[in-house]
Amino acid sequence: MKELTCQKFLELLASSSPVPGGGGACALVGAAGVALASMVANLTVGKKKYESVQEEVKAIVERANSLRALFLDLVEEDARGFEPLSKAYSLPRDTEEEKRVRERILEEALIGACSAPLKIMRACLDSLSLHEELAEKGTKIAISDVGTGAVLLKAALLGASLNVFSNTRLMKNAEKARTLNSQAEEILEKGLKQADQVIQRVANYLKSPSRS
């Protein structure tokens, strides 16, 4: 799926096809968000004005490239995770035995379907730390892209959390659902705070008098 053109991916996303769905869209948006971190870092590398932070910025480039690749892998993983869930919903439930089997398989599929969205959320959190660093150390000619990347990652983070919650609400195992919700909520709280801080810092800089 990650080899598709932008147009084909969006056509599939807009269609009645079960995948890609919200999770895959979040992973792709996350990839775009962290790609902006790569761009800003690459624009900073080699600039004399930022000579004192060159090693840190080069490390950001490497980390951002790895995270972008991870996000793209998660587009695929989210699609694979949804397949067992889709099949579970179509299982027969005419007899009591069929109902029990369907319920067990559905529960397993719901738990499995939470895996990719949680990974997307963690990747968003890791990516936001790069934007936070770039807001301080990156070239100021591209600081708006630092903020834009944070906006995209915030959206991906929120969307992925909804994918987790949409699965946990259907689980029969309330304890497992609470555990997964708690994991998602903890990442969400940290990520939203970090994203908002980066966005506000960038906005404050852009709205301040020109330093040129």
Please describe what this structure looks like.
This protein is mainly α and 212 residues long. It has one domain: Up-down Bundle (Four Helix Bundle (Hemerythrin (Met), subunit A)), CATH 1.20.120. It is 80% helix and 0% strand. The chain contains seven helices and no strands. The N and C termini lie far apart (45 Å).
Summarize it:
The chain is mainly alpha-helical and 212 residues long. The protein has helices at residues 6-14, 22-44, 54-89, 96-113, 115-137, 143-168, 174-207.
| Helical content (DSSP H or I, runs of 4+) | over 70%
What is the level-2 CATH architecture name?
Up-down Bundle
CATH topology: Four Helix Bundle (Hemerythrin (Met), subunit A)
- List unreliable stretches of 5+ residues: none
* Global structural class: mainly alpha
Write down the Rg. Answer: 20 Å
Write down the secondary-structure element order. Answer: HHHHHHH
How would the blueprint of this fold be written?
Elements: H1 6-14, H2 22-44, H3 54-89, H4 96-113, H5 115-137, H6 143-168, H7 174-207
Give keywords:
single chain; about 210 residues; mainly alpha; Four Helix Bundle (Hemerythrin (Met), subunit A); 7 helices; elongated
